[in-house]
Amino acid sequence: MLFKKSKNNSMGIQMTKAIKTAEELIDKYCIESHRELNLEEICNAEGLFIEEVELNGLLGNIIFENNYGLILINKSISHPGMKRFTIAHEMGHFFLSKNSKINKHGCSYDSLSNYSENKNHEAEANRFATELLMHKPWFSRFIKNIPVCMDLIKQISEEFTVSLTAAAIRYAEIGQYPIAVIMSNDNLVQWAFINDSFPCRYLPVGSPVPKESNAWDYFNNDEMSKEEDLIQARCWFREDFRCSQTTYFYEQSIAIPVTKSVLTILWESELA
């Protein structure tokens, strides 16, 4: 128990360091909004070079020594948001680890998008990238008083040029409305990111995707409604005692073909 507490404290310190490092970079270059953020210019100024190459099984890679580094990005990445987040993630490794003995990182899709158990240095780089691309003051201004739905997540993804997954997670972190973000693959929950204000919270990794969900339709019938639907809370949160039979959520899902996964968001309905 004492070891677990120490580990959690250490992780918290790392995350704080990642956020602070991103904030310092924003201040250093006097960046006042996300539209002014140019990753390539920052990299050039900081001794980082970016190349697009073939990377089997990896989204990105970085090699660095002292104050110089080379970021390699998989040229097959088609989504501009994913490409940008990958660059920012690799920048995170550089700024957070350049004084350590580790001077090479290879990052897969899971490294950048798995929000369950993750290696400390990968989670730290994700935290840096999130804060740099979606700096809390910028993000909060953009989403203020806008009701949550998948359309908003898409707007965030386009406005900040990030992946849909990164946009959804950031909203769950600092958005003003209760939301659950769920990634599923092959009929099983891969991970779930649920904010503190959401009424149901217990959804273990590996839980089966409910048959009432749009995600189940995608995995089993190769088709899925893109519209928001009402779903009983107990369908997803079978083992959560806080969910009553009368609690309903809005559900909306979107397929992620590159990993054959489904990103689902749940938010409260007027029936909740």
Automatic annotation (TrEMBL):
Pfam families for the chain: Peptidase_M78 (PF06114)
Residue span(s) of domain IrrE N-terminal-like: 68-170
Protein name: ImmA/IrrE family metallo-endopeptidase
Classification lineage: Bacteria, Pseudomonadati, Ignavibacteriota, Ignavibacteria, Ignavibacteriales
